[in-house]
Amino acid sequence: QVQLVESGGGLVQPGGSLRLSCAASGFTFSTYAMAWHRQAPGSQREWVAGISRGGNTGYADSVKGRFTISRDNAENTVYLQMNNVKPVDTAVYYCVARGTRDYWGQGTQVTVSS
User: Fold this and answer.
1) What does the alpha-carbon distance between residue 28 and residue 5 come to, in Å, rounded to a whole number?
2) What is the C-alpha to C-alpha distance for residues 55 and 36, in angstroms, rounded to an integer?
């Protein structure tokens, strides 16, 4: 049974940092590309960052230079380090596994507010 469990969300002040984690199980993690998406209230879900099986990364322009995606294949975990967060980063963040099919986590809420 495939599971993607996000954690690390919460309330953070503008300019602060947060690290999201996504623990994967039920599939061969190292053979999947991983990504983070987010959905703000009243908005469509959008891609935030991705990391290939080999560790190549890509970022949406809105988070480039502030967010860092990484993966630990030994721990079957993907991370999203969020620095210098802004109120516009407020959203539910979803972990996605991309392979022969896509798997989505349930999401974790990130709220950026003073």
Assistant:
1) 15
2) 14
Mean pLDDT of 28-48: 96
Q: How far is CA 76 from the centre of its chain?
A: 14
* pLDDT tens per residue across span 4-37: 999 999 999 999 999 999 999 999 999 999 999 9
Burial class of residue 110, CB neighbours in 10 A (0-12, 13-18, 19+): buried
What count of other Cβ atoms lies within 10 Å of the Cβ of residue 9?
19
DSSP string, 94-112: EEEEESSSEEE---EEEEE
pLDDT at 100: 85
Q: Is residue 22 within 8 Å of residue 15, measured between CB atoms?
A: no
